[in-house]
Amino acid sequence: MSAYLGEFIGTMILMLLGCGVNAGVNLKKSYSFDSGWIIITLGWGLGVAMAVYVVGGISGAHINPAVTLGLASVGEFDWNLVPGYIIAQMFGAIAGATIVYLQYLPHWRQTEDAGVKLGVFSTSPAIANTPANLLSEIIGTFMLVLGLLGIGSNEFTEGLNPLIVGFLVLSIGLSLGGSTGYAINPARDLGPRIAHFLLPIAGKGDSNWRYSWIPVAGPIIGGIYAGLFYYALFKDEVKTEFWGLTAVIAVLAITAVIKERKNA
Fold first, then answer.
1. Domain 3-263 has CATH 3.10.110.10
2. Is 0.85 surpassed by the pTM of this model?
3. What does the alpha-carbon distance between residue 231 and residue 224 come to, in Å, rounded to a whole number?
4. Could you give the angle at which helices 186-198 and 214-234 cross, rounded to 10 degrees?
5. Which of 35, 111, 168, 239 has its CA 20 to 30 A from that of 73?
């Protein structure tokens, strides 16, 4: 199996189990309806672990363009493979979300709220604030890629690494996910959002394209910055891009604080 096919299948599994738990918790007349945020974060964490178990030995199981770009930015991944990985991840995300639609086919009509249906597929902010929302996605993805680099530098009993990665995603969801729904993965949000737009979901409403750039741009910035940060602090390899992104994120944080104070 090629690495590209591995990324397609791994991302498809992630979306099947991740968007699947979203559907189970949020769509009416599901047995798991209204079981809460803990179940959602646990489902996503286990979904990541299962995807990594299945394709980790084939493609490295990036299953996330932010991870691919973060690793490439510090020389841990070949830039020539980046476009193919990202394309495979995007199509895998669309495929996984489409399977979730079929899995819960009778439940869409039973759920009246269009926003709930969109929430099965993609993220949205709990409180709309563009700079703060973008910063939240940067922080969450920074922690994801930094954690992955840290996990990779440690020795674990054979076979436990995917489970530890799942725990990392669970931790991010529990601690940081309440602000924007922790996309932390451009393919995870954009792929299912495209599926939502294309699929004949009863009473689905619009796909909220106005917000869609934030869960793409934020994770890309956060993933690349995490790679640069890790190499600067732990390997004493400081790149010019590290200082540039540090300045950009600092300006964004200041902007978010100023906007919030004006809204007070």
1. no
2. yes
3. 11
4. 170
5. 168
